[in-house]
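Customer escalation, tier 2.

The customer says the design service returned an amino acid string that "doesn't look like it belongs to this structure." They asked us to rerun it and document both sides in this ticket. The original structure tokens are below, unchanged.
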């Protein structure tokens, strides 16, 4: 009999109510990069929801910089996959190191 496949319990389902402040890094011609702070919530294994600050377009990819409570810095690449009626942007991870994924799980 096959045993059930285990996943990271901290990130298997969205962590409702948990929020982190993250910087969205947007490359800008001639200016290096532009940063804007947003709230990240509903953190899950596949992505998270971004609220506040700028409004990105569906399909747009950006880099997020997380500063965890223990001062650990994490960078993750995300793609915007949906925008809700309240302008909350659902983003899917397209580049996140497994070690960083585990750190995010412990921080929420």
């Amino acid at each position: 009999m096959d045993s059930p496949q285990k996943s990271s319990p901290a990130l298997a389902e969205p962590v409702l109510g948990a929020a982190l402040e993250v910087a969205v890094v947007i490359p800008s011609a001639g200016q290096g990069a532009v940063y804007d702070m947003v709230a990240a919530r509903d953190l899950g294994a596949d992505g998270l929801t971004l609220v506040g600050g700028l409004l990105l377009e569906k399909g747009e990819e950006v880099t997020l910089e997380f500063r965890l409570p223990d001062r650990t810095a994490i960078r993750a690449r995300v793609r915007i996959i949906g925008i809700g009626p309240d302008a909350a942007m659902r983003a899917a991870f397209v580049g996140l190191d497994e070690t960083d994924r585990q750190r995010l799980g412990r921080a929420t």
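Tier 2 assessment: The sequence is consistent with the input. The first strand starts at residue 15 and ends at 28. Strands lie at 15-28, 32-43, 47-51, 61-67, 73-83, 89-95. Sent an explanation to the customer and offered a walkthrough call.
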